Amino acid sequence: MKSTAIANSNIALVKYWGKRDEKLILPTNSSISMTLDKLHTTTTVEFSPSLKEDQIKIDGKKILGEEAKRVSQHLGLVRKMKGENLFARVESENNFPKAAGLASSASAFAALSLAATKAIGFALSRRELSILARQGSGSASRSIQGGYNEWMKGTKEDGSDSYSKQIAPQSHWQELRMLVTVLTTKEKKVKSRAGMAQTVANSPLYKAWLETVEKDLETVRSSILEKSLFRLGPCAELNALKMHSTMMTTQPHIMYWEPESIAMMKEVMQMREDGISAYFTMDGGPQVKILCLENDAKKIQKRASELKGVEKTILCSAGEDAKTIEKGLF
Ligand code: PMV
């Protein structure tokens, strides 16, 4: 009753920001993302009759409180599916800082969903796994499959049509890169769950966000299929800015940008003036991610690394599917 899984994180090119159902994690809009090959979570799960409660460790530390509750609730969904009530030991490791805007919850809940279902004796389809992962963290639904995925918002109340579908596999666009610039690894103050609920409730710009999202989905989907950075980049960049505008206009304001983030975004704009095709995106944290092509990647990485306050940069390509592996963490 033990299994280990590895899943890549993903960064949205059309963002998810807002839920229509808080409990089932059903979004107000569909979203599209790219999985990242260099950022992943490895998770081992073992169900055992000798345990009196779930025991959870992340990055070597026992976790308690809200964080542990979220993992236990997720294990509860798996137990319920199987009609089993054994507790589990869970160990999870990220190869990057968690909760700093690098989508750690995406890879974490994707790896947990796969490892826990395998450990309890289920072989779920990709669609079923995406639905399960979604209930841990919305963006996790997009980390079950590699390459590029669209999380369809669905219309059903039970969420059975709200899952991610692969637009194109890892191998589809060999030249595309995403450079992750790590500006600070402090955990963010406002978690996305609370932040998006507040934004939906009171940002005057939220309606405008929803009105433009369908068009963005169409552009991003087709530009990935056509492998056109020239069409993808500007649309993804503007989509991120629109999402951040809804965050900044909610009360109290949510501002994930740090001075270093602004400097990096301006540097990317300057790169374009210098004739380099580079476009930024940002999520619920200070890090800036830069979309570009292989030919320019090294040049862009050098310029980005030279900026003040940059802790490190990680050059990523599209990632592979989440998968089980032999070697466990315990
Ligand atoms: O799934 P969550 O709760 O981690 O929310 C993700 C929200 C953003 O990263 C800001 C956007 C996205 O689509 O990933």
Tag the structure with descriptive keywords:
eight-stranded mixed sheet, 2 domains, binds (3R)-3-hydroxy-3-methyl-5-(phosphonooxy)pentanoic acid, 8 helices, 330 residues, Ribosomal Protein S5, domain 2, alpha+beta, Alpha-Beta Plaits
Secondary-structure blueprint of this entry?
Elements: E1 2-14, E2 19-21, E3 26-27, E4 31-48, E5 55-58, E6 61-62, H1 65-82, E7 87-94, H2 104-120, H3 126-134, E8 148-151, E9 164-168, E10 176-182, H4 192-202, H5 206-226, H6 229-248, H7 259-273, E11 279-282, E12 288-293, H8 294-305, E13 312-316, E14 323-325
Parallel strand pairs: 5-7
Antiparallel strand pairs: 1-4, 1-14, 2-3, 4-7, 4-8, 5-6, 8-9, 10-12, 10-13, 11-12
This protein binds (3R)-3-hydroxy-3-methyl-5-(phosphonooxy)pentanoic acid.
